[in-house]
Design goal:
The protein is mainly α. About 60% of the residues lie in helices and about 5% in strands. The protein is built from 20 helices and 3 strands. The longest helix is centred in the C-terminal third of the chain and has 29 residues. About 10% of the residues have low confidence.
Length: about 525
């Protein structure tokens, strides 16, 4: 893919995301789901009204800024309500989220490109992310989860850019990585898992390096040289072709076809990691609290964290008795329990929807408006399979030599695709597994930080298929892409809250647990 078509592709992905997020943004003149908290809190900062916040305040600052800017724009105020505590148009408290969410597919594409320097992988990753439902829904309302994700992803992108540079330029990008990771945690505490993923991939790189050093003492105090990668592509191509998937890259310069910034992870020492990805994020997180603590002086910095922890520990267990949409972590990957953010019925399409109030009695409504926080089913399910494929690929590179040589060993060289697999699997696990020990009621939107790496996994697999010498695999890659796109279009009415007949609604609720 040429640079020109790559730019056109990225612009198209962004415009698709932007248009879907802004279309009909103020149609529901009410507070949808947790807008009753976040939109109101954002407005409280503008009106200087003290309140207790059960999460770090960064997302509410941003929503408040969006409300202030939107209130000074002389259009898009056809509908207003006072549900935030002030007379506001729904557009004012939603537009900044819509704009921010539009950039998430672009950042995912940037990470994919930086991992591999492959433009097709980047375009596919961005396109698949733009075709997901839960990110679309979360971006269209004044909610906080998109800020955890975009700041966490920016942290990873800046880290990869730092690894691709040296000296001052590396320090420059590491500072921005630390700021972004701190901002992610400053949105919700689970943003910390993005930072833990960065540490885990760094530790994995050092462990691999140390294992190699035992067999070659000269490597013990040296970082892996980029020149060592010279023969990796040919070796990986041979292995991939034998398995039916090729990682062949066009004959660009070696730095673009045979290397990944992840190979430079061992150039970062413990002191750099602790400063750039430890002290800086902690500092950013701390200063984020200053405006809130100046507004609400009930609790100090330590006391407010104690109160937040107490709040979450007393939310109850992960069962439907606590909340009808509670979903434990193991239900997320297969999307067995999505949740409705908004549900309203009407007798006809032209009937105005009430600002507040229950839907019509069962059977009375002929039109259903449903906003479902639900991913693209086939994107998630195919992504799960691709994630398992990557795990199997990593395990096989250890198990097969073990079986053949009768002792444990790590491959002397790692291909670019092996590094990508390590990065995706480790970061997915870092964002999912901490929830195993969480006993409070959790919801499917808590999976958003992990599922972005599922999108990278399926994008990598499809890219490998499309680059294969085998026609069957190229057909498979095209088929998967079209199924994901078709599924996105099919379920779009419940992402955008479009009017549906009762039969049309039932057609999209494949399982009772989805309702």
């Amino acid at each position: 893919m040429t640079k020109k078509w790559f730019r056109i592709g990225m612009a198209s992905v962004f415009l698709l995301s932007l248009s879907l997020r802004f279309w009909g943004l103020e149609r529901f003149n009410t507070l949808v789901f947790d807008e009753v908290y976040f939109a109101k809190f954002g407005n409280d900062y503008l009106t200087r009204t003290p309140f207790f916040n059960a999460h770090p305040p960064l997302s509410q600052y941003i929503i408040g800024i969006g409300i202030w800017i939107g209130s000074h724009i002389p259009f898009w105020h056809d509908t207003v309500n006072g549900l935030t505590g002030s007379l506001r148009s729904p557009w004012t408290y939603r537009w900044f989220n819509a704009l921010t969410g539009s950039f998430i597919p672009v950042v995912v594409a940037a990470i994919a490109y930086q991992l591999s320097y492959r433009r097709t992988f980047a375009i596919i990753a961005g396109f698949f992310t733009a075709c997901d439902g839960i990110f679309l829904v979360e971006s269209r309302y004044a909610l906080s989860n998109i800020y955890i994700v975009i700041f966490g992803l920016l942290g990873h992108w800046f880290l990869l850019l730092a690894l691709d540079n040296q000296n001052r330029r590396r320090s420059f990008w590491l500072v921005f990585a630390g700021i972004a990771f701190g901002a992610s945690v400053g949105t919700k505490w689970n943003g910390l898992w993005f930072l833990s993923g960065a540490y885990l991939i760094w530790i994995a790189a050092w462990l691999i390096h140390l294992m190699h050093s035992f067999s070659n003492p000269k490597l013990l105090f040296t970082s892996p040289s980029l020149e060592e990668v010279g023969g990796r592509i040919q070796e990986s191509e041979f292995r991939s072709q034998n398995s039916g998937v090729t990682s062949y890259s066009p004959p660009f310069s070696p730095s673009l076809s045979s290397e990944s910034p992840l190979q430079n992870l061992t150039q970062l020492n413990i002191f750099q990691m602790l400063f750039y990805l430890g002290i800086i994020p902690a500092f950013i997180y701390s200063i984020i609290w200053i405006p809130h603590l100046q507004l609400d002086k009930t609790y100090g910095f330590i006391a407010v964290h104690q109160q937040i922890l107490k709040f979450h520990l007393h939310l109850g267990g992960n069962s439907s008795d606590v909340h009808p949409y509670c979903a434990a972590w193991y239900k997320w990957p297969l999307m067995t329990r999505p949740m409705a953010y908004y549900y309203q019925t009407a007798e006809s399409i032209i009937e105005p929807l009430p600002v507040m109030g229950p839907p019509l009695p069962a059977g009375a409504g002929q039109v259903i408006y449903d906003v479902h926080a639900m991913g693209n089913p086939f994107l998630w399910w195919f992504g799960d399979a691709a994630m398992l494929f990557l795990v199997g690929m990593l395990v096989s590179q250890v198990v097969i030599p073990w079986v053949k040589k009768k002792h444990f060993s790590v491959p002397a060289t790692l291909s670019v695709d092996t590094w990508i697999a390590l990065y995706i699997v480790i970061n997915y696990a870092a964002n999912l597994l901490p929830w195993v020990r969480v006993t409070r009621c959790a919801f499917i939107y808590h999976y958003m930080c992990a599922v972005v790496f599922v999108f990278l996994a399926i994008a990598w697999f499809v890219d490998q298929c499309l680059r294969s010498y085998y026609q069957q695999l190229r057909v498979l890659g095209v088929t998967i892409t079209f199924i994901i796109l078709a599924a996105f279009i099919f379920w779009m009415p419940i992402y955008l809250g479009l009017p549906l007949s009762p039969d049309g609604y039932k057609l999209r609720m494949w399982f009772n647990s989805w309702i």
